[in-house]
């Protein structure tokens, strides 16, 4: 169960990460469109799971690897943007959100 504060911080981090990925498309995303689909912060506010959906890239795994490799860079930018709002910037754990692929697979199975 998430507290109200966790929900607000989840929304704030999701919004700021979306802006960061939009502004840093060339360096981080290699031209692909990266969407932050969900953010879950731990109750102690030190760890954050970030679910990403990647579209339009030549190799989505390469884009994801580049984002995870530059994790500290993204966290640094997030810290500059949220430094006044949060005392401590959480560690970011990026994960691929495959819910769209799963929904497409279910849809194809239902059509058969």
Structure keywords:
globular, 112 residues, alpha+beta, 3-stranded mixed beta sheet, GMP Synthetase, Chain A, domain 3, 53% helix, single chain
Biggest sheet descriptor: 3 strands, mixed
CATH architecture classification: 2-Layer Sandwich
CATH superfamily: K homology (KH) domain
First-last Cα distance: 38 Å
Q: What oligomeric state do these chains adopt?
A: single chain
Total number of domains: 1
Question: In order across it, which strands form the biggest sheet?
Answer: 1-2-3
The number of helical elements comes to 5
Give an account of the 3D structure:
With 112 residues, the protein is α+β, with helices and mostly antiparallel strands. The chain has a single domain, classed as 2-Layer Sandwich (GMP Synthetase, Chain A, domain 3), CATH 3.30.300. 53% of the residues lie in helices and 21% in strands. It has helices spanning 4-23, 25-28, 60-69, 71-82, 99-111, and strands at 33-41, 47-55, 91-96. Strands 1-2-3 form a 3-stranded mixed sheet. A hairpin with a 5-residue loop joins strand 1 and strand 2 (47-55). Helix 1 packs across helix 4. The chain is globular. 17% of the residues are buried. The model has no long low-confidence stretch (mean pLDDT 87).
